[in-house]
Amino acid sequence: MDRLLICIAFCFGLGYSGFSQNEYTLEPVFPSDNENFSFIKDIPLIWSDSTSVELALKQLVFRFRENGYLLASADNSSWKENKLVADIDPGPQVQWAKIEMDSDDLIFLEGENINLNRWNGKEVFPGEFTELENKILNAAINRGYPFAKIYLDDLEFEDEGLKGTLVLEKGKAFNFGKVRNIDPVNISNRYLQQYLGIEEGEPYSKEVLEKIPVRLRELPFVESKKDPTVTFLGSKAIVNLFLKDKKASRGDAILGYLPRNNSLNPEESQKDLFTLSLMADLNNQLGVGERIYVKFEQLRPQRQELELKGNYPYIFGLPFGANGEFSLYRRDSAFIGIISELGVQYLFSGNNFLKVYWENRTTNLADIDTSKILQQRSLPDQLDTRNTLFGIEWNQQNLNYRFNPRSGWEVKLRTGFGLKKVRENNKILDLAREDFSPQIIYDSLAEQSWQIRVEGQIAKYVPVGVASTIKGSLRLGSILAESDVFRNEQFRLGGNQLLRGFDEENFNATHYGVATLEYRLLLATNSALFAFGDFGFVEDISSQTDNRDFPVGLGAGITFETKVGIFGFSLAVGKEEELGFDLRRVKTHFGYVSLF
């Protein structure tokens, strides 16, 4: 019985690549009646490491089979110093092959994306044969048999064709063992196995392993020094990682200077304003991929906001994470807003997720301008409210470097639907007069009504030249409501975060859109010169207003990294629809970022 080995195992990370300045050469030796095999001339024969030479030999044999030499093989290969010498036996060239498959192999391959009826007992061309060969081997390797082989048995030649039985020799079965990181790193093996999709005891899969380098690049707090390898020990396949910690947490401090000369609002103080923003974004401090976020802002002398967020991934070993958020906002002496949120995230790779959430928004009026209410004989434009929303949020990004990207994109979409309740305020009810009844006005309002809040953001970074990039982004927000929207429910725009060149929270909006075009010259990993334009649309539709504006903000700045952190400086000036740019009111911001 003739028996010819057709393919060796296609394994992942089995060899050791020895990098050296020496050259490694492949020297194929053909029979004396060597033909001019032009189809192999593009295969390089000189490489920088021995493993690449061995792969080149396999590629050479495979190329023969693609061109009709189905019995091609590399015999008696051996290393002579830095040269791999191999005798190449092309065998006869055939135009077709008719193959049968073993019944046990057919059962094993059920459920794979292989149309076996197309191949079994049918004539196939050489290119189709090599396609089938690859599919069968990959199916076996991805089901726990990394050393699977294929060979043709019972060979018969007929005219320009070949008949035979295709046999799959699966070899020893392997299951995944524990993930092993070679160097100490601040991340648990349990988290890595869950994130990489490597379940201990599950069959070995080359497909899972091939995704590891990409998924590791998407983790913000570690980086890989080289590609993973696999150690086969007993019946276990142990994945070896070569990770090191990467700075992914940051602390920010931003000081803003807002000149008040020529203020358009006579009620505003003519004193210059200073704003302060402090933020800490802590990632993986406990080694389980968690995130803790704290932010405090002093936007005006009596206007502060505190934000707290926390994420914990892979609860109970499942690809789900828990999310909680809380914010407290004090707007002068007018009102206090409290937002609390609980969510469950379905986790994708990197920082990407799909979340469902419950959100509660409560506004409590503080000091009430009773004289204004009595004078106007109407309720104020902000009232005590409670909004309960259920929603969904999608976050996806693919950036080459999340802190100072040059290429890539990011998308965020958030939609919540719920009910709003207006709560009566006793201080306002106590203002009742013979000709003024706050209770009647309250009764005229819908006690409960539906409301939808939508926010979206998309950004694209396009590399330009050697060290530049252009960022284009669009941010949108809209409140759709059954009843009037009060001022304390609206979006707040303007300032260093959104719509630069204007005072912090200069605009209240029921609907808005801000398009940004920004050029960045990247000076270093965390340093850049930038110039930008923010082009906005703001629609202020509330219980007592109906205004629209098209503000524009222009500016420039620089960020530069030092041994103690990253410093930033920016200037911006804004223009509203009916007013031009006022260079006497340029907004200045100084920033400091510490990565750790």
How would you sum up this structure, described in words?
This protein is mainly β and 596 residues long. It folds into 3 domains: 1-172, no CATH class; 175-245, Ubiquitin-like (UB roll) (Roll); 250-595, membrane protein fhac: a member of the omp85/tpsb transporter family (Porin, Beta Barrel), CATH 2.40.160. Helices cover 13% and strands 48% of the residues. It has 10 helices and 34 strands. A 16-stranded antiparallel β-barrel has the order 16-17-18-19-20-21-22-23-24-25-26-29-30-32-33-34. Strands 1-8-9-6-7 form a 5-stranded mixed sheet. Strands 3-2-5-4 form a 4-stranded mixed sheet, covered by helices on one side. β20 (320-331) and β21 form a beta hairpin. It is elongated and about 115 Å long. The model is unreliable at 1-21 and 262-267 (pLDDT under 50).
Write the layout of secondary structure elements.
Layout: E1 3-7, E2 24-29, E3 46-47, H1 50-66, E4 73-80, E5 83-89, E6 96-101, H2 103-108, H3 116-119, E7 123-124, H4 126-141, E8 149-158, E9 161-169, E10 175-176, E11 180-181, H5 189-196, H6 206-210, H7 212-217, E12 222-224, E13 229-233, E14 236-241, E15 243-245, E16 250-258, E17 273-283, E18 291-300, E19 303-312, E20 320-331, E21 335-347, E22 353-365, H8 370-376, E23 385-399, E24 408-422, H9 426-429, H10 438-444, E25 448-464, E26 468-481, E27 491-493, E28 507-509, E29 511-524, E30 527-541, E31 546-549, E32 552-562, E33 565-575, E34 587-595
Parallel strand pairs: 2-5, 6-9, 10-14, 11-14
Antiparallel strand pairs: 1-8, 2-3, 4-5, 6-7, 8-9, 12-15, 13-14, 16-17, 16-34, 17-18, 18-19, 19-20, 20-21, 21-22, 22-23, 23-24, 24-25, 25-26, 26-29, 27-28, 29-30, 30-31, 30-32, 32-33, 33-34
